[in-house]
What we know:
Elements: H1 35-38, H2 85-103, E1 109-110, E2 118-120, E3 123-125, E4 127-128, H3 137-166, H4 170-178, E5 181-186, E6 196-201, H5 213-219, H6 227-234, H7 241-248, H8 255-261, H9 269-275, H10 283-289, H11 297-303, H12 311-317, H13 325-332, H14 348-355, H15 378-420, E7 425-428, E8 436-443, E9 456-461, E10 466-472, E11 474-475, E12 482-489, E13 495-501, E14 507-508, E15 515-518, H16 525-591, E16 600-603, E17 612-618, E18 631-636, E19 645-648, E20 650-651, E21 659-665, E22 672-678, E23 688-689, E24 696-699, H17 706-756, E25 762-765, E26 769-770, E27 774-779, E28 793-798, E29 811-812, E30 814-815, E31 828-829, H18 831-837, E32 840-841, E33 854-855, E34 876-881, E35 888-896, E36 899-903, E37 910-915, E38 926-929, E39 940-950, E40 953-962, E41 965-972, H19 988-1006, E42 1012-1016, H20 1017-1020, H21 1022-1031, E43 1040-1045, H22 1052-1061, E44 1064-1067, H23 1070-1075, H24 1080-1083, E45 1089-1091, H25 1118-1133, E46 1142-1146, H26 1155-1167, E47 1171-1175, H27 1181-1197, E48 1202-1205, H28 1210-1219, E49 1222-1225, H29 1235-1241, E50 1245-1249, H30 1252-1257, ...
Parallel strand pairs: 26-37, 32-34, 38-42, 42-43, 43-44, 44-45, 46-47, 46-49, 47-48, 49-50, 50-51
Antiparallel strand pairs: 1-4, 2-3, 5-6, 7-8, 8-12, 9-10, 9-13, 11-12, 13-14, 13-15, 16-17, 17-21, 18-19, 18-22, 20-21, 22-23, 22-24, 25-27, 27-34, 28-29, 28-35, 30-34, 31-33, 35-36, 35-37, 39-40, 40-41
Helix pairs in contact: 6-8, 9-13, 14-15, 16-17, 19-21, 21-22, 25-28, 26-32
Amino acid sequence: MSLQPQRPICCRRAVPEHTRFRIRPVHGLFSHSTLGFREVIRIATTPCMLASSGYSNRRPRRTLIPGTKASTRKGFAPRPQVGTSTQKKDQNDAQEEEVSGGSGSKKPAISSSGTTDRKVTGDVQSAEIDPTSRMSSNLVKRRTGILEEVEQQGQGNDEIDQQIFTDMPSDSTDDAETDGQIADVGNEGDGLGLRYKNIAVDHSNKGIGKETMIDQFSKAGIGKEITTEQFSKVGVGKDTATDQVNDVGIGKETMTDEFSDAEIGEETMTDQLNEAGIGEGTIADQFNEAGIVEETMAGQFSEAGIGEGTMADQFSEAGIVEKTTADQFSEVGKQMVYVKNQIGRITIAEMTEIAGEEEKKLAVDESRLDISDVAEPAEAHGSTENAVLNMEESLLKQKADMEAKAQRQLLENLADENFSEGIKVFVVPQVVNPDQVIEIFFNRSLSALANEPDVLIKGAYNGWRWKFFTEKLQKTDLKGDWWSCQLSVPTEAYKVDFVFFNGANAYENNNSKDFSLPVEGGMDETAFEDLLLEEKHKEIEKLAAEQAEKERQAEEQRRKEAEKAASEADKAQAKVETEKQRHRLHHLMKLSSESASDIWQIEPNFFKGGDRVRLYYNRSSRPLSHATEIWIHGGHNSWSEGLSIIEKLSHSGKRDGDWWSADVVVPDRAMVLDWVFADGPPGKAVVYDNNNRQDFHATVPKGMPEELFWVEEEHRIYRKLQEERRAKEEAVHKKAEKTARMKAETKERTMKMFLLSQKHIVYTEPIDVRAGSVITVLYNPSNTVLNGKPEVWFRCSFNRWSHHNGPLPPQKMVPAENASHLKATGEEVDSNKIEEQMGVYELGGGGDEITDDVNFGNLDLDLCGQPDPDPIADYNFMLVKVPMDVYMMDFVFSEREDGGIYDNRNGMDYHIPVIGGIAKEPPMHIVHIAVEMAPIAKVKDLHFRNSFAWDGTEINVWFGKVEGLPVYFLEPRNGMFSVGCIYGRNDDGHRFGFFCHAALEFLLQSGFQPDILHCHDWSSAPVAWLFKEHYAHYGLSNARVIFTIHNLEFGVNNITRAMAYADKATTVSQTYSREVAGNPAICSHLHKFHGIVNGIDPDIWDPYNDHFIPVPYTPENVVEGKKAAKEALQQRLGLRRSDHPLIGIITRLTVQKGIHLIKHAVWQTLERNGQVVLLGSAPDSRIQNDFAHFADQLHSAHAGRVRFCLTYDEPLSHLIYAGADFILVPSLFEPCGLTQLIAMRYGSIPVVRRTGGLYDTVFDVDNDKERARAQGLEPNGFSFEGADPSGVDYALNRHVS
C-alpha cells in the first residue's frame, strides 16, 4: 500500500536566518569496510525560500527529503503530484518550454546563493527573476544578501564535506556527479519573476542512482551479504526507511530483520514511534508532524531517485523481500533520531523541534515577495548546538559503555583461560608493539607471592639493558587473585623483561628464568645494539664536552687567580723599584746644577718639561776638543727611559771658548736631565765626554710636584712590568701551542710509519682505520709463509681478540686481478659488486651486505710519493666493516678455511689501532724493575713512604715521581746498597739478587696487582724465575714477565735463565735481535724473542724548548738555530770561529764504542781543516788516561780546532748536538744507540757504522734509498761497513765533500 497526499505541498515556509545544523559521524566508530558511508553522512539546515502561486494560504509543511552533499544548498521547494521519473522529466520539459515561450528571451539567472551559477553534470539548478516583477530593487538586494550570507556560511562546511566525499571510490563519485532526479515546480502568475526552480536530488552519497538497488549496492562495494552483516559493520542507527535504503543499501532480507540487527528491539509500532519522539497518533499524522509530504511512498522514493515503480517494486529490485507498508513504516519510525556514529538522516523540522528552535517565518505573497528582516534568536542557535553536543555525549557514553563491556568480557575470558592452564601472567593487548600502553596481569595465588600483601613489578627492556622500571600492581575485580599495572613500551624495545616481588626480598622470577614478552614490529636486536653504540658514543661526546668545559673553566679560574697574584707581585715590584729610583734621583739632584759656566750652559735658566731649550758645550780642554762632530746623548731622571735626547751640536758664536750648541726638547716628566757628549751618533761614537764617568746632570727648575711625580712613576713602572710579563706569558703560550702541534704531527707521522712498516706484506686503505667505517685490507702473501698457496683466508676480530661478538668467520680473500675496477681513482663502487667479488666482512655474520657505497679513492701502494709499477698485482683484498665499539683491529691469515699454515707475524698477530671508537683500550699496569734508571736527578718530591721487613732486614721505601711516573726506591737498612756505585764490585750478583727478591716482596705486601713485570738486563733478570717459582701462585697471579736485553755482553748466565722463564723477551732493535739469534742463551727461545727499536724522550731532547742552546729552533728556522749554537759552542770551548765542518763525538769511551776508530776520525777531520769536539769519559782508568794524553797532544798541535771534554756534562751535550754539523758513532756493535737519534732530532747528520740499531735507524744517502723508501722514510746520514780505518775514511770523505 502507499500513502496518497491530501493536498499539494505548501510553499509558505521560512527558516531562521543563518541557521545551519549538521551532524557528522565519529570516524572511530566505523570499520574500514564502511569508510565510504561514514564520510558522507550529514544533516544540514539552511535557509530556504519557496514560492508557489497556488499554495500561498496553506499551512507550511515539512519534508523528509534531505539536501544532497554534491551540490549547493537549495532550500525547500514545492513538489508536484508524484509521478514516475519519466513523468517528472516530461513535466520539466513542458515547464521549460513555457518559460521559454512566455519570456521571449532568457533572463539573467542566479543560483540559490544569489551570486553564482552552480552546475553539476546532468543537473541544472537556477532561478530567473522577471524584470516585470513587482519586487522592489531593495527587496531583491535584501533577498540576495540573505542568500549570499547563508551561502558563505555554508561554504566552509561544504568544503569539509566535499573533502570527505572525494575520499569515496571513484565510481561512487562519478555517480554523485551525474545521478539525481529533478522535480520541477511551476510558478505561473506569481508576479515574482520566479519562472522555475529545479531541485536536483543527488543520491550518489548513498550509492543509489538511476539503477537498480542491487547495482547501487554493488557500486558502494557492499556485496551480496545478509543485511544483518551490513548493518552490523556500519552500526545502523534509527532512521527512516528511505534514508536507510539510500544510505546503506539494504541487503536481501526483511526490514524487520534489518532493524532487529540495528538493535532497535521488538516493540509495537506505536512504542517505536514514541521512542523516536514522534508522538502519539496515526502514521499519517506522525508523518505530517514530522514534515513528511503527503505523497505516496513510491513518490517519496521516486524523488529520492530510486527509480520507477511502486515501493514494493523498488525494494524488489534492491533484492529486499516485500513487506507491508505498515511494517515498513513501523520500522521507519525507529530511525527518527540520528547521530554522527549512525547511518541515516533526520528532517530539518524534526531537528528544529528537538532543539526547541523558534522559527520566524518570512511571508511570501503570490503578488509580491515580502521578506521580513528577522534575526535568528541566539537562544535558538545555542540550543541547537547544545542538543547536538548532548546527543554526541550520550552516544559516546553509550559507545564507551559497550567497549568497556567488551573489554571486560575479554579480560574475564583471558583470566579464566590462563588460570585454568596454570599460567601466572598475561598481557593485554596480547600482541605487544612499540609505543604502546600495555596492561600486565599477574595471578598472585599461583606464585611465590601468594601470601604477600603488596605486589610490585621490576623490569627493563631488551635483556635488562634498557630503561629500568618499577611499578606497584593493583588488585583487579576479575575472578581470582589477579593483579595488574600498566606499562608504556618504548620505541626501542624488542623484548620486555620483568619479575614480581613484594617490595622487599620475596620474588617471583619464573623459576629463575624471569618473565619476558616479545615486542613485535619494532627494532631487532642488531638494530638495538647499534642504538646502544650510538647512545654510548653520544654519552662519551657529552662527557668529553662537559669535561672539556670543566677544564676550560678551571683553567680560566687558574688564569684569573694567577693574573691576580702576578698583578699584586707587579705592584709590589713597582713600589720597590720606585723607592730605589727615588733614592737615585735624590742623589743626582744633589749633584746636579743649573749650569757649569766653563763647560756647559742651558738657556733660558727657567724651563719645564716640554720646553725647547738651547744647550751649550765648550769643548776647549775637553776630550772632544779635536772632534769634527759633537753629539749629545741624553735622557732624564737617571736615565729611567734610556736615550730620549739625541741631537747634533753646531758651532756657536759664543765668545770666551770653543762653544757648540743644540736645541733640545725637555721631556715632559723630567725632574733631572742626564747627558753625555760624543763624537758621533749612538752606535758610531768612539770618544765620549761623560764628566769623568759621572755624566752631566741638570735640574729642571719648573718640574712637576715631586709627590705627584712619584705616584705617576710608580704607576708607569707597574704598567711596564705588566706589559713585559704578559708579553712573556703570550710567548710562552704560543710556544706551548706550537710544541703541542709539533708533537701531534710527530705522533701522526710515527703512526703512519708504523702502519706502513710492513707495507710490503699488509696494509689498509685508508691507512687510518676509523670506527664505523669500511676499510680494505691488502695482503701480499709472496713475502710470507703463505707464498705460493692457492688460497688465502682472512681471520679477524677486534680489541685484541676480546670483542664481545667474538672472532669473525674465516673469509676467503680475492686476488687483485679479479678486482681491477678498484684501481680507478675516486670510483664509486657498488657495494653489492664488491661483496660478490671481494666479500664484505662485518660482525654478526661475515659477508653481510653493506648498503652504503664505498669510495676507494686512490688505491695505490705508493704512499711515499712515487707509484709502484703494477701496484696491486700481488695483493689480495678484503673489505671489513669496523664496529663502533673497538679500539684495535686484529687479524691473521691462513692457507685454508679450517686453518693449515698460518701467517701470524711470528706469533704476534697483526694489530692496527682503530680511531674514533667509543671503546678505549684499558690501561695496563706495568711495573719495571731495574737497578738503575735515568734521569734519577729529575726525581721530584722524594719522600719516605713506609718500610717492610724481609729476610731479616728492614727495608725503607722512598717514593717520588720522575717525569710524571711514580717511582719507588728500596733502601735496605743493612747498608747493602750504600757502597757508592752500582756496578764494579765483587758482590754485584748477590746485591742484585737481594734487590729483585725485595722488589717482589714489596709488591706482594703492598697489594699491587701488575699486569706486566718488566725486568731489564742481567741485573734484574732474577725477577723472571723468582716470580715464577715463589710469587706466581701466592698473590701476584695476574702478571706476565717480559725480559729485555739491552746488552748481551754482560751477565750471560742470568740472561740465559731469564730467557727460559720469561713469557716474552725483547731487545732494542731488530737487527741486533738477528745478530744475537745464534747465541746459546737466545737460540732456543727465538719463538718469543723480538726486536723493538729504542727511542728517546722528545721532551728532554727538544731543540725548540731547550734551555741549553742560545736560539730555540724548529725545522722552519733550523739553519739560524744551528748557526747560533755552533758559534756559542766555539766560543765556549775556545775554538776558532769558522764555517768548516764541526764533528761532535758524545760517547762512553769503551772498546765497544770503537775508540780506535774515534782516534782515526779525529786525525782525518783535522787534516781536512774540520773541527772536532769530544765529550765523554771512560770507566776504565787506562782508557781515560790514554785519552787525556791524546787531548793534550791535540790541543797543543791544533789549538782552536779541537777540544776534548773528558767528563759528564749534560748541558754541554745539548750544545754539541745543536752546534755540530756531524755526530760520529763508530760502534763495533750497538744494540740500539741513542746518540744518532738525538743527533737527528737536533738536525745534525749521523755518521755511523752499519750495525745493530745504527743500521735500523740511519739510512745512507747513497746506498739506502730503497730501504728508506720501503719504510716511508728518506735517507738521513752516512754509514760504513767494517771496523777498519778505511771504512771511516769512506764515510768522512763523502760527508766532508
